[in-house]
Structures are given as structure tokens and as C-alpha cells.
Amino acid sequence: MITWSTSRLVKLSSCWNDFWFAKVSAYPIAAYRILLGIYLLFYLGAAAPNVALLFSQEGVYSPFLIPDIAPPAWLAWVLYSLTISLTVAFTVGYRTKLITPFLFLFFLYHFLLNIAVKACSYDRLLIMSLALMCFSDCNRVWSLARGNKKADFVEPKVSAWVTRLLALHLAIFYLMTGLFKALSPAWHTGEVLRGVMSSVYASAAGFMVLSWKPPAEFFNLMAAALIVFELSCPFFFFVRRLELNINVGNVLLAVKIQHIQLWFFLCGLCFHIGVWIFMQLPQFMICPIGYVLFLDGDELHDVLLQLWRQIRRVWISTPLRTAPPAPTLIRDSIEAGPK
């Protein structure tokens, strides 16, 4: 009995270590770095017209956990420009071990100076993502760090723990949101969705939908579907296929469901695009960019490689439309002949 327990504990410990510290493909974390950098560029770029208003002493700023002192406008622009430059360097994978901590600190400075006063869940998700990326080896592939040493990147591998933590963080984010909705009486009907689509967040598309006067059952169904998705997706994000053996009388039915993970990714992408269109909140697109963390790295690389080859094949095979050669004066005079 003691031997059995000890062997089980050793096996459990081995599985635990493999889950967190095994060497996994570097492609998912590199893809996430690129997508997160692009997202951050759009996020910070939206503040460009109002840098002096938001982050300098000439505007209205709301500091949180830092002294009530804002820099002059010129210094605010310098700090903002440095943050943009760090984001570009992070996106292209230039010295990420050095760049990412500075990017995290510079973004945290702007967040605490003004953004924190209206902080939403996507801000906290962004901060946690940047904090974890500080410890990742995310520039092994698809980055400027690759250089000319192609032999070192034949089988790019990184430690799994950062990728696992980022994926689990996103899964828990969905799960807690779903639990909140499931336990909140306001979400047991669709009145919350109806109210949101007529609030200050609503877009013209949202008001257009309300103008059609859809029945209450429409919003009730949307609210129920959203709760089911948010409670189930944290688990099915990790499931690629499902096989079930069902006994029906004396008959054993084998049910195989393929691509479960991809179907949940598609549902999540459609949901967040809908939030963008109907509620004017593109910031929540930080959630679907994290789906790459759940993908198999080798398959992700192969799919993107095939896509790139298809694009190149179409691009190269497309005939160029060239203009006919311009006639020269000599040829014109010969063809025209004597007059």
C-alpha cells in the first residue's frame, strides 16, 4: 500500500513538473508577443490626440497610488513616445529580456497616472500579461533576435510555465466572469443586455438593433448563451477532441467530436467582435488574441507556413499588367511611310 501511494505521488509530481517546466514550442508565445504588441499599439495610439490632457499638468489627470504630480506637456510627450518605441521593439522581438520590463514600467506609469481611474477588466488583464511576459523567452522565433544563426532555431523550445500561466489566467478570467453572471440575478434575464445596448456605451449598430424591437426572449437567449459559453470555454479551450462511448440499450455508440477547441475559439472571437461593434469596446479584443496560447506550437507554425506559401504562390503567379511599349519616333516614321 505504501509502495502504491509512493509511486502515485512520484507520477503525480512528474506530471506536475512536465506541465509547468517541460520544453514546449516557442511559436505560441512568440505569436502572442506579436499580437499583444499590436494590441498595445492601438491601445496607446488612441491616447495620442490627448497626451497633454491625460498625462501632463496642463490637463486633467487622476493619479492612483502615485504622488499627485504630473510632468509638463513636453516631458509627457517624451515619456509617451518612449512607451510607443518600447512597444514597437517588443512587438518585433528586439531584446525582449531588457525591453519588456521597461515597457511594463512605462505602461504602469501611464496607467497609474490616469487610466486607473476608469480601469476595466481588460486593463488588469493587460497588466498581468505584460508582467508575465517579462519572464518569458518570447523572442526565440519571429523576431529580430533570430539574426543569421538559423541552426540554433531548427527546433525552438522554451520553458512552458509562462505560456501555461498566461493561458490559465485567461481561462480563469472567463470563468470568474461567467460565475459572476450566473450568480447575479440581473443576468438571469436579458434586460442587462437590452440596457447596455441603449447606454452610453452603445453604438449606432446597437441602437439599430433596438429599433427593430426584438422580443424579450431574444435577449434572454443571448444572456443564457453567454453564461454557458463563459462557464464552459475555460475547460474546452484545452480540449482538442472528445470521444464518448454511450450505451443505448444493448448498443454501444462511439461519438467523436473533432476541433472542439477551434469551435470555442470561433465563438469567443464572434462574441468579442460583437462587443466591439455594438458596445464600442475594442479593448476586449485582448481576450481572443490569447487563444494562440492554447494551440499546439508545431501545428500553428505549419498552418502559418502553408498560409504564407499560398500567399506567395498567388502573388507570384498573378501576371503583372504591363502597359504596351511606347512607340519610338523612328518606328513611327517607318510605319507611317512617306506622305
Kindly report the spatial arrangement of strands forming the biggest sheet: 1-2
Strand share of the residues? Answer: 5-15%
Helices, by number, come to 13
Tell me the domain tally.
2
Task: Characterize the largest beta sheet: strand count, sense, and whether it forms a barrel.
Answer: 2 strands, antiparallel
Distance between the termini: 115 Å
| Average of the residue pLDDT scores | 86
Q: Please estimate the helix content.
A: 55-70%
| Total number of beta strands | 4
| H/E element order | HEHHHHHEHHHHEEHHH
Rg from Cα: 27 Å
- Going by helix content, strand content and strand pairing, the class is mainly alpha
- Sum up the overall morphology in one term: globular
Uncertain residue segments: 328-336
Describe this structure in words.
It is a single chain. The chain has 339 residues and is mainly alpha-helical. The protein has two domains: 21-159, no CATH class; 173-307, no CATH class. Helix content is 59%, strand content 6%. It contains 13 helices and four strands. It has helices spanning 2-21, 27-45, 51-55, 73-91, 96-113, 121-133, 161-183, 191-196, 204-211, 216-236, 260-279, 297-317, 329-336; strands at residues 23-25, 157-159, 241-248, 251-258. The chain has a two-stranded antiparallel ribbon with strand order 1-2. Helix 6 runs antiparallel to helix 7 (161-183). The protein is globular, with a radius of gyration of 27 Å.
